[in-house]
Amino acid sequence: MIVVGTGCGPGLLTEEAISVLKTAEIVYGSKRAIEIVSPYLENSCEINFIEDYKKLKDLPPRSILLSTGDPMLAGLGNRGDRIIPGISSMQLAFSRLRLSLTNVSVVVAHGRDHLSANKQCIEELGRNKIVFLITDPGYSIISFVNLAKEKFSGLTIALCENLGYPEEVISKGTLESPPIQNSDLFVVVIWDKSN
Questions:
Q1: pLDDT tens digit string along 67-121?
Q2: Do 103 and 152 fall within a single domain?
Q3: Pairing with 147, which of 36, 161, 177, 190 sits 20 to 30 Å away (CA)?
Q4: What's the pTM value of the predicted model, to 2 decimals?
Q5: Which residues pair with 133 in a beta bridge?
């Protein structure tokens, strides 16, 4: 099976990904992933929306499994015999914010306990890391702010919504005035501006 990173939005596929998709016979992915790659699929390609991620091990060997963003960043990269990377939300967010990736720590709150993720953010910020937080629609920045106020004062919080899409919005705030999310599709970048 080949796992193809779709990039985090339209127009962010790599040439390698496009080349593989043009010859695909059978593709599996989320609705969003399939929308991103559909211009590159032949009419004869069998398209399957993933309903149950627990059944991925049962996919035919010649399948292409789509992973939004990059498969190795909280994606489906561990499923494939071959992995084709994509442009991740982290790469796009850091380029938009003009931040280096050399001091980043990735924290995953998507589908996980949000309190534990927030505590991990606090630990990584204490190590002078820039935190890239992968969220899900139920995540609340305010829950992080309430926890972080006890330890920090000079944090910058960047809310990156709909990265790679025409409706992309990046808003910055602080612990005293955090950005408010308006979309279900967002990531958060947090750093101590005094470092």
A1: 999 999 988 888 888 999 999 999 999 999 999 999 999 999 998 999 999 999 9
A2: yes
A3: 161
A4: 0.91
A5: 107, 188
